[in-house]
Amino acid sequence: MLILGISAFYHDSAAAIVRDGEIVAAAQEERFTRVKHDSAFPENAVRYCLAAAGATGSEVDHVVFYEKPFLKFERLLETYLAFAPKGFESFRKAMPLWIGEKIFQRDIIAKALKAVDLDLAKDEKLLFSEHHFSHAASAFYPSPFERAVVLTMDGVGEWTTTSVARGDGSNLSIFKEIHFPHSLGLLYSALTYYTGFKVNSGEYKVMGLAPYGEPKFAKLMLDELIDVKADGSFRLNLDYFDYCTALKMTNDRFDELFGAPARKPEERLDQRHMDLAASVQAVTEEVVLRLTRALAAETGEKNLCLAGGVALNCVANGKVLRDGSFDNIFVQPAAGDAGGALGAALAAYHHQKQQPRHVTPGKDGMKGSYLGPSYDQAEIEKRLGSVGAEYAVLDDDALIEATVEALVAGQAVGWHQGRMEFGPRALGGRSILGDPRSPTMQKALNLKVKFRESFRPFAPSVLRERVAEWFELDCDSPYMLLVANVRPEHCRTMSADEQALFGIDKLNVPRSDIPAVTHVDYSARVQTVHADTNPRYHRLLTRFEAATGCPVLINTSFNVRGEPIVSTPEDAFRCFMGSDIEFLAVGNCVLRKNEQDPALALDYKNAFELD
Fold first, then answer.
1. Which of 14, 65, 85, 410 could pair with 341 as two cysteines, CB 3.0-4.6 Å apart?
2. What is the pLDDT of residue 271?
3. What is the CATH number of domain 2-141+335-367?
4. Is there a common fold for 2-141+335-367 and 377-600?
């Protein structure tokens, strides 16, 4: 049975295809259109998934949309009626769009499918899943667990903002929900907006900013913004928020509570903004820990699966793991709405069609999340030649050796290998790499390569076999979704004077043997690299360790700020020529910046809308 899943029309549109319960391919539309968080129908991703499956539309048994549009329209309408007449103007402006996109979305989807393949659009093929059930399915069905509690948390689906399900074999059933407008995701997004970042894209910046601050506002938030019960259930005080009735997240009363208006985008960050970030992060962790502790006690289950946008909060995930209420945790790598496409396909296969599920203990079904397009060597050479690239073709050994030499020399390395990752993280398929031992690499990569805010931390990739020797973590973390501290023997204690520095100034103080991936609180967002899912990247790390004694590399996504992660070899070459990346490996092709035609240089610093 071949099932195509689709998410679209909000943000991070995607498609995924599943054959007899096995994930064949998945990709976000933004990687093809080069529009960050593209919400359009994922026509390109659908075409890719069909090609990866070697299938035509006639061979697809079902197409599944990740949520139920009419339920979402019902929520929008009932919310307006509950708050009327407040917000009439925003309601008046939005109503034509709601009618077009929600009530008639089935027709819109069918028309878009016809543009790809007429046989995809047959009425009997089209199914719908509920938003949070899609999230839950995306986490449980690929997990390595026969049984688990499944917790999903995001902004909002149709009505649900938080759900709890039980998974057992092929069975998955939701038994608890929290409904809009009470949402942990929207609380975090409100503080994202208030601290001057973009909602639905800047939340991870708030998480990265939090360690520079102190949670001085956490008590105020718990007293005024959110009422959290012992079991983690919660309600928001809607007097402070405008997302129900207006086109902004917070209101004047919110400004009064925190003593100032919202920070403007790109305005200078001060200590107060860092303290606000630390505070909302602390509140989020408190809610999540109360939820997980209560669920473990109530169900007696030992395994936890997580999905939804809040599950991308890898700091909270790390604290849940260390808390020990659950023995094992699996987080869907595409935890946001893109993963809903995959969840919808898996939900249709296992839940709606009641097909059996096969679990491999200790090994998830995501294939390392390397589910996107790949290119063979001949095609890589043809594509690079078409854009005027100068390259040398090396055998496997020479490629690894040349890349390690570039890394040891302190160069920023573009690494475009194998299948593209599904989800927001680069995992060694479309990555920029660097030497984590360098005290200047973090700042250089942020300012000269990524063109992004200097406070943003970088993640370490580490050989799975070595993770416990370098980090306070001894389990798989292949998807960069768990934060752990660098082990004390690799850390350097900061002096009192260094501790007293203004938040961001602490960045320039080496804190460990791998300063470029050690955040100011000695934490790191760890990715374990496995020989079975990414043998070439594993081999690179192994050779880097042999050369330096360090089994760790900086791994950040291959893009600049505001740009989707690169997909094709041409994308990689353009980013290489538009930034200070000095060395590029695409398949077995090696490119050095000083050997390229200077006329091909690009101004990438201003090429994309800031995220």
1. 14
2. 92
3. 3.30.420.40
4. no
Q: What is the pLDDT of residues 270-282, one digit of tens each?
A: 999 999 999 999 9
**In 3-state terms, what secondary structure has residue 558?**
coil
CA-to-CA distance for 441 and 448, rounded, in angstroms? 10
Alpha carbon distance 154, 577 (integer Å): 37
Domain 377-600 falls in which CATH fold?
A: DHBP synthase (3.90.870)
* CATH 3.30.420.40 applies to domain 184-329: yes
| Residue spans per domain, the chain | 2-141+335-367, 184-329, 377-600
pTM across the whole model: 0.95
Averaged confidence pLDDT in the chain: 94
CA nearest neighbour of 289 among 136, 184, 143: 184
H and E: helices and strands count for the chain: 20, 21
Beta bridge partners of 527: 461
Do residues 241 and 250 lie in contact, with contact meaning Cβ atoms separated by under 8 Å? Answer: yes
Is 11 one of the annotated active-site residues of the chain? yes
Instruction: Compute CA 246 distance to the chain's CA centroid, rounded to the nearest angstrom.
Output: 27
Catalytic residue among 11, 131, 519, 538: 11
Neighbours of 90 (CB within 10 A): 16
**Does residue 436 have a cis bond before it (omega within 30 degrees)?**
no
